[in-house]
Amino acid sequence: MIPVLPHSLPDDVPAFWNRSTTSAVLIDDAPDIRWLVRRALERTGDFVVLGEAGDGQSGVELVMDHAPDVVLLDLDMPGMGGLEALGLIRAHQPAAQVVMLTGVTSSAQLDAALDAGALGVIRKGSSLSGILAQLRQLLDPRPGLEIALEGVV
After folding, report:
1. So what's the pLDDT on residue 18?
2. Are 85 and 56 in contact (CB under 8 A)?
3. Using one digit for the tens of pLDDT, what is the confidence trace for 64-73?
4. Domains of the chain, CATH where assigned
5. Which residue in 72, 30, 81, 29 sits closest to 50, CA to CA?
6. Which pTM does this prediction carry?
7. Residue 48 pairs with which residues in a beta bridge?
8. Which uninterrupted H or E stretch holds 64?
9. How far is CA 23 from CA 17, 18, 20, 147, in A?
């Protein structure tokens, strides 16, 4: 049986759920992390990765050029760090949902990211399946869809 979906979604549903895929940009100075997360996102069929950047400045430019639905952003990067990049992304692409994907454990830095407009924080120590589950939960926080999340702030 094929489920029947309404022709239009309610107004309170985020715009990115109106499409079959969610567009994403990855900003992290670790190429291996970008590679793993990109492959994991793309294998779900739910995400299309529009691009990757290894530093904050390049990442902000990529976000401004492509206007993705979601940005996965590291906090600790050389040059422009994640907090500065987050501020610029929020100022110029306010519709983009920014999720911090980081190994940073400082509660002050994590709180600063949330205060600056990050949707949430996912720790890099999580498994790839855990990262995907946490990301889905952050992007679709409707009641009844709760899942056990380890490492999500």
Report:
1. 47
2. yes
3. 999 999 999 9
4. 16-139 (3.40.50.2300)
5. 72
6. 0.80
7. 23
8. helix 56-66
9. 11, 12, 10, 23
Phi-psi domain of 33 (left: phi exceeds 0; alpha: psi -120 through 50; beta: other): alpha
pLDDT digits (tens, 9 = 90+) for 5-59: 334 444 444 444 445 789 999 999 999 999 999 999 999 999 999 999 999 999 9
Q: Are 95 and 15 in contact (CB under 8 A)?
A: yes
Residue pair 121/152 in contact (Cβ under 8 Å)? The answer is: yes
What is the Cα–Cα distance from 28 to 47, expressed in whole angstroms?
Answer: 18
Q: Which residue has the higher pLDDT, 3 or 23?
A: 23
Q: Alpha-carbon distance 25 to 41, whole Å?
A: 11
